[in-house]
Amino acid sequence: MTTRTLTDPLPAVASAAARVADEVRTLIVDGELQPGAKLAEERMRSQLDVSRSTLREGFQLLVRERLVVHVLSTGFFVRRLGRDDIADLMTTREIIECGALTSVNTVPAQGLARIRAAVAEGKAAAERDHWQTVAAASIEFHRGLVALAGSQRLSMLIEQTLAEFRLAYCYMEDPLAFHVTYLHKHDTVVSLLQEGAAPAAAEYLRTYLANSRSDLLLRVPE
Predict the structure, then answer these.
(1) Verdict on whether the full-model pTM lies above 0.90
(2) Which of 61, 102, 184, 192 has the fewest C-beta atoms lying within 10 Å of its C-beta?
(3) Among residues 77, 31, 27, which one has the least CA distance to residue 47?
Protein backbone atom coordinates (compact mmCIF):
# COMPACT_ATOMS: atom_id res chain seq x y z
CA MET A 1 0.00 0.00 0.00
CA THR A 2 1.38 3.40 -1.03
CA THR A 3 1.04 6.34 1.35
CA ARG A 4 1.57 10.01 0.58
CA THR A 5 3.22 12.45 2.96
CA LEU A 6 2.29 16.10 3.45
CA THR A 7 5.23 17.15 1.29
CA ASP A 8 4.47 14.85 -1.67
CA PRO A 9 2.95 16.56 -4.74
CA LEU A 10 -0.78 16.22 -5.20
CA PRO A 11 -2.14 14.26 -8.17
CA ALA A 12 -2.85 16.53 -11.13
CA VAL A 13 -6.65 16.54 -10.75
CA ALA A 14 -6.51 17.08 -7.00
CA SER A 15 -3.91 19.82 -7.50
CA ALA A 16 -6.16 21.61 -10.00
CA ALA A 17 -9.12 21.43 -7.61
CA ALA A 18 -6.93 22.73 -4.79
CA ARG A 19 -5.88 25.63 -7.03
CA VAL A 20 -9.55 26.47 -7.65
CA ALA A 21 -10.18 26.41 -3.89
CA ASP A 22 -7.13 28.60 -3.27
CA GLU A 23 -8.26 31.19 -5.83
CA VAL A 24 -11.82 31.40 -4.52
CA ARG A 25 -10.66 31.39 -0.89
CA THR A 26 -8.40 34.35 -1.65
CA LEU A 27 -11.31 36.26 -3.19
CA ILE A 28 -13.35 35.61 -0.04
CA VAL A 29 -10.54 36.59 2.34
CA ASP A 30 -9.84 39.75 0.31
CA GLY A 31 -13.52 40.68 0.50
CA GLU A 32 -14.09 40.51 -3.26
CA LEU A 33 -16.70 37.80 -2.75
CA GLN A 34 -19.22 38.72 -0.06
CA PRO A 35 -21.44 36.36 1.98
CA GLY A 36 -24.46 35.32 -0.08
CA ALA A 37 -22.71 35.89 -3.42
CA LYS A 38 -23.28 33.22 -6.05
CA LEU A 39 -20.11 31.75 -7.55
CA ALA A 40 -20.15 32.39 -11.30
CA GLU A 41 -19.21 28.95 -12.58
CA GLU A 42 -18.77 29.67 -16.28
CA ARG A 43 -16.67 32.80 -15.70
CA MET A 44 -14.47 31.11 -13.10
CA ARG A 45 -14.06 27.99 -15.23
CA SER A 46 -12.87 30.15 -18.10
CA GLN A 47 -10.55 32.28 -15.97
CA LEU A 48 -8.98 29.30 -14.22
CA ASP A 49 -8.91 27.13 -17.36
CA VAL A 50 -10.34 24.04 -15.67
CA SER A 51 -13.13 21.62 -16.46
CA ARG A 52 -16.56 21.93 -14.88
CA SER A 53 -15.95 18.81 -12.78
CA THR A 54 -12.62 20.16 -11.48
CA LEU A 55 -14.20 23.52 -10.69
CA ARG A 56 -16.97 21.89 -8.70
CA GLU A 57 -14.49 19.64 -6.93
CA GLY A 58 -12.68 22.81 -5.86
CA PHE A 59 -15.96 24.29 -4.67
CA GLN A 60 -16.64 21.15 -2.66
CA LEU A 61 -13.31 21.61 -0.88
CA LEU A 62 -14.58 25.04 0.19
CA VAL A 63 -17.89 23.51 1.29
CA ARG A 64 -15.91 21.27 3.63
CA GLU A 65 -14.07 24.36 4.89
CA ARG A 66 -17.46 25.98 5.60
CA LEU A 67 -16.73 28.91 3.28
CA VAL A 68 -19.23 27.91 0.59
CA VAL A 69 -22.65 26.25 0.54
CA HIS A 70 -24.20 24.23 -2.27
CA VAL A 71 -27.89 24.72 -3.03
CA LEU A 72 -29.20 21.92 -5.22
CA SER A 73 -30.34 22.99 -8.68
CA THR A 74 -29.24 26.56 -7.88
CA GLY A 75 -25.48 26.64 -7.46
CA PHE A 76 -22.70 27.44 -5.02
CA PHE A 77 -22.80 30.47 -2.75
CA VAL A 78 -20.46 32.17 -0.30
CA ARG A 79 -21.70 31.16 3.13
CA ARG A 80 -23.45 33.50 5.58
CA LEU A 81 -22.54 33.17 9.25
CA GLY A 82 -25.03 33.18 12.11
CA ARG A 83 -24.48 34.16 15.75
CA ASP A 84 -23.62 30.60 16.78
CA ASP A 85 -21.08 30.37 13.97
CA ILE A 86 -19.33 33.57 15.05
CA ALA A 87 -19.33 32.62 18.74
CA ASP A 88 -17.85 29.22 17.89
CA LEU A 89 -15.22 30.76 15.61
CA MET A 90 -14.12 33.13 18.36
CA THR A 91 -13.83 30.23 20.81
CA THR A 92 -11.76 28.36 18.24
CA ARG A 93 -9.54 31.38 17.67
CA GLU A 94 -8.92 31.77 21.39
CA ILE A 95 -7.92 28.12 21.75
CA ILE A 96 -5.58 28.18 18.76
CA GLU A 97 -4.05 31.65 19.09
CA CYS A 98 -3.66 31.83 22.86
CA GLY A 99 -2.61 28.20 23.04
CA ALA A 100 0.04 28.80 20.38
CA LEU A 101 1.48 31.78 22.24
CA THR A 102 1.48 29.93 25.55
CA SER A 103 3.67 27.25 23.99
CA VAL A 104 6.33 29.73 22.81
CA ASN A 105 9.52 29.67 24.85
CA THR A 106 11.67 31.92 22.66
CA VAL A 107 10.24 34.42 20.19
CA PRO A 108 12.20 34.05 16.93
CA ALA A 109 13.44 37.31 15.41
CA GLN A 110 12.02 36.44 11.99
CA GLY A 111 8.59 35.72 13.46
CA LEU A 112 8.59 38.96 15.41
CA ALA A 113 9.58 40.87 12.27
CA ARG A 114 6.62 39.34 10.41
CA ILE A 115 4.21 40.47 13.12
CA ARG A 116 5.66 43.98 13.32
CA ALA A 117 5.40 44.30 9.53
CA ALA A 118 1.70 43.36 9.69
CA VAL A 119 1.10 46.03 12.35
CA ALA A 120 2.91 48.66 10.26
CA GLU A 121 0.89 47.68 7.17
CA GLY A 122 -2.35 47.98 9.11
CA LYS A 123 -1.49 51.43 10.45
CA ALA A 124 -0.48 52.70 7.02
CA ALA A 125 -3.73 51.41 5.51
CA ALA A 126 -5.77 53.02 8.32
CA GLU A 127 -4.22 56.39 7.49
CA ARG A 128 -5.45 55.90 3.92
CA ASP A 129 -8.92 54.87 5.19
CA HIS A 130 -8.52 51.56 3.36
CA TRP A 131 -10.30 49.12 5.64
CA GLN A 132 -9.86 46.09 3.40
CA THR A 133 -6.09 46.38 3.71
CA VAL A 134 -6.39 47.01 7.46
CA ALA A 135 -8.42 43.80 7.73
CA ALA A 136 -5.93 41.84 5.63
CA ALA A 137 -3.07 43.12 7.80
CA SER A 138 -4.98 42.08 10.92
CA ILE A 139 -5.44 38.57 9.55
CA GLU A 140 -1.71 38.42 8.77
CA PHE A 141 -0.95 39.59 12.32
CA HIS A 142 -2.95 36.72 13.80
CA ARG A 143 -1.43 34.21 11.38
CA GLY A 144 1.98 35.45 12.47
CA LEU A 145 1.16 34.97 16.15
CA VAL A 146 0.25 31.33 15.62
CA ALA A 147 3.30 30.78 13.40
CA LEU A 148 5.51 31.56 16.42
CA ALA A 149 4.61 28.11 17.76
CA GLY A 150 6.38 26.53 14.79
CA SER A 151 3.54 24.08 14.12
CA GLN A 152 2.45 23.51 10.53
CA ARG A 153 -0.85 22.02 11.67
CA LEU A 154 -1.69 24.95 13.95
CA SER A 155 -0.88 27.34 11.12
CA MET A 156 -3.18 25.41 8.79
CA LEU A 157 -5.97 25.47 11.38
CA ILE A 158 -5.76 29.22 11.96
CA GLU A 159 -5.57 29.84 8.20
CA GLN A 160 -8.88 28.05 7.71
CA THR A 161 -10.47 29.58 10.82
CA LEU A 162 -9.52 33.14 9.86
CA ALA A 163 -10.76 32.61 6.31
CA GLU A 164 -14.15 31.61 7.69
CA PHE A 165 -14.07 34.46 10.22
CA ARG A 166 -13.65 36.87 7.29
CA LEU A 167 -17.30 36.18 6.46
CA ALA A 168 -18.30 37.95 9.68
CA TYR A 169 -17.06 41.30 8.37
CA CYS A 170 -20.33 41.85 6.53
CA TYR A 171 -21.94 42.64 9.91
CA MET A 172 -19.61 45.58 10.56
CA GLU A 173 -21.40 48.86 9.78
CA ASP A 174 -18.06 50.69 9.94
CA PRO A 175 -15.37 48.07 9.28
CA LEU A 176 -12.52 50.59 9.46
CA ALA A 177 -13.51 51.81 12.93
CA PHE A 178 -13.95 48.23 14.13
CA HIS A 179 -10.53 47.14 12.96
CA VAL A 180 -8.72 50.29 14.08
CA THR A 181 -9.97 49.69 17.63
CA TYR A 182 -8.08 46.40 17.72
CA LEU A 183 -5.21 47.56 15.53
CA HIS A 184 -3.96 49.72 18.40
CA LYS A 185 -3.99 46.69 20.71
CA HIS A 186 -1.53 44.92 18.42
CA ASP A 187 1.22 47.23 19.67
CA THR A 188 0.75 45.87 23.20
CA VAL A 189 1.02 42.28 21.99
CA VAL A 190 4.18 43.13 20.04
CA SER A 191 5.72 44.88 23.06
CA LEU A 192 5.10 41.86 25.29
CA LEU A 193 6.60 39.54 22.70
CA GLN A 194 9.64 41.78 22.32
CA GLU A 195 10.13 41.45 26.08
CA GLY A 196 9.99 37.67 25.74
CA ALA A 197 6.72 37.54 27.68
CA ALA A 198 4.75 35.25 25.37
CA PRO A 199 2.47 33.91 28.18
CA ALA A 200 1.54 37.49 29.14
CA ALA A 201 0.87 38.24 25.46
CA ALA A 202 -1.41 35.20 25.38
CA GLU A 203 -3.44 36.46 28.34
CA TYR A 204 -3.72 39.95 26.85
CA LEU A 205 -4.83 38.39 23.56
CA ARG A 206 -7.45 36.33 25.41
CA THR A 207 -9.09 39.53 26.69
CA TYR A 208 -8.70 41.16 23.25
CA LEU A 209 -10.54 38.27 21.56
CA ALA A 210 -13.28 38.23 24.21
CA ASN A 211 -13.92 41.94 23.63
CA SER A 212 -13.89 41.44 19.87
CA ARG A 213 -16.41 38.63 20.20
CA SER A 214 -18.78 40.80 22.27
CA ASP A 215 -18.44 43.78 19.93
CA LEU A 216 -19.15 41.70 16.87
CA LEU A 217 -22.09 39.75 18.30
CA LEU A 218 -23.81 43.04 19.14
CA ARG A 219 -24.01 43.65 15.38
CA VAL A 220 -25.42 40.25 14.39
CA PRO A 221 -29.23 39.94 14.22
CA GLU A 222 -30.86 37.48 16.63
Answers:
(1) no
(2) 184
(3) 27
